């Protein structure tokens, strides 16, 4: 739109949140209230799904993209105990001990985060993510750099409507932008509130 201030660059990562998914018996998906994951260091999500190519008549007779979402890594300062309980299925005892069981049932999440820009932060949402438990590692302290934790993430298309991701733009309405981390954005709720 003419006159709209637009980002020329993006940088940084902040405001990483997760919202636990509940799937009903009928396949309906609902999201819990987003919870912040402090200490975001970096996120790298590579596209998943290759170009489909069908050869005929000695040419690429038919080609089409195959969007299977994204997969990658979220690096954070440390994995919060709340995330371990909510998402990874670890149990916190009354004595304050975290227990990981091979039988733990992990939960899918929506992942929300933002990249800073020279004008305004762009807010992102991955709708249907699976998270693998992090590795255990540490090193003897010989510098001022603390350890970090990596979470492997697969962001698949949502099974009920194939949505993968969304993000804000320069023309995103203020109400939607300001409420990004209060409730997982759904197009239907935007239509209902209009």
TrEMBL record:
Residues 8-161 form the Phage tail tube protein N-terminal domain. It comes from the Bacteria. InterPro entries: L_lac_phage_MSP_N, Maj_tail_phi13. It holds the Pfam family L_lac_phage_MSP. This is Phage tail protein. It comes from Sellimonas intestinalis. The lineage of its organism: Bacteria, Bacillati, Bacillota, Clostridia, Lachnospirales.
